[in-house]
Amino acid sequence: MAKLKLIDIAANLTDGMFKGIYNGKQYHVSDIAEVLKRAWEAGVERIIVTGGSLKESKEALAIAETDGRLFCTVGVHPTRCKEFEESGNPEHYFQELVSLAKEGVQRGKVVAIGECGLDYDRLQFCPADVQKQYFEKQFELADALRLPMFLHMRAAGKDFCDIIEQNRHRFISGVAHSFTGCAEDRDQLLKFDNLFIGINGCSLKTVENLQVLAGIPLERMMIETDAPYCEIRSTHAGARYIKSMWSSKKKEKYDPGCTVKNRNEPCFVRQVLEVVAGQRGIEDVGILAKTLYANTCRVFFPHDLDTMAGVVLGDDCNI
Hints:
Blueprint: E1 6-11, E2 21-22, E3 25-26, H1 32-41, E4 44-49, H2 54-64, E5 70-74, H3 82-86, H4 90-106, E6 110-119, H5 128-137, H6 139-145, E7 149-154, H7 157-167, E8 174-177, H8 183-190, E9 195-199, H9 207-213, E10 221-223, E11 248-249, E12 259-260, H10 269-280, H11 285-300
Parallel strand pairs: 1-4, 4-5, 5-6, 6-7, 7-8, 8-9, 9-10, 11-12
Antiparallel strand pairs: 2-3
């Protein structure tokens, strides 16, 4: 496996699947150590662990503190924004987020506010008006701490972009992760010069997805897994470009030396890179990897841009 330098900007390592729990049933022991070992061997140099609620953000920070290559976000996912009001004291809930984010920044672990945004595909979990209210609220965090935004947009393009426009002065940069929108959604996002677009397996399912992907400038793209979700399956349009493979077994026959069938994990970010390269006709995946690595550092690790060995900003990186 050729040596590459990769960053997975989105891994839900707090998810029960990494503790061996699927749909409430225990199938195997916690295996985060094995998952991370495969990631490091695949060339993943950093992973951002996603926080989607106050509780989850605390767990994400705890995980991030176990390894120097792990970082995290702090924020509330749109489908969980009812937690602000269900807490009985929305302002206190928000101030706890503020305290946690400050603590994480001081420890060098919190690199973004999120996952926050709008999700109109799952309004059964949280109505649109509540989502919008607390999406806007979280810009206060980004503004106060001068952190980028880690964003979620599902079937809410117009409202999402309207809120971004109204608050663009309150955040320095960000990424709309796990992008699955249409060409119009893509073009609306690209109008914000401080926004990048995150690509994972969910972005690469159909021929239409790949056509939309073709219109994203490489200098505005990042890659991710969104593990344990959004894996690239053999039936997906982008699967034909995959070159890197791992042995897998069903969760019922768990083997620590294998990936779990249908459970995504950070090592598979390499496959996302390969699909992007294949779809764009890029033969040297190393050049593409450098570009995407530099994009990610520019947003989440700006202090490392000039010091990271192997990351060269220049024409060969399409920057």
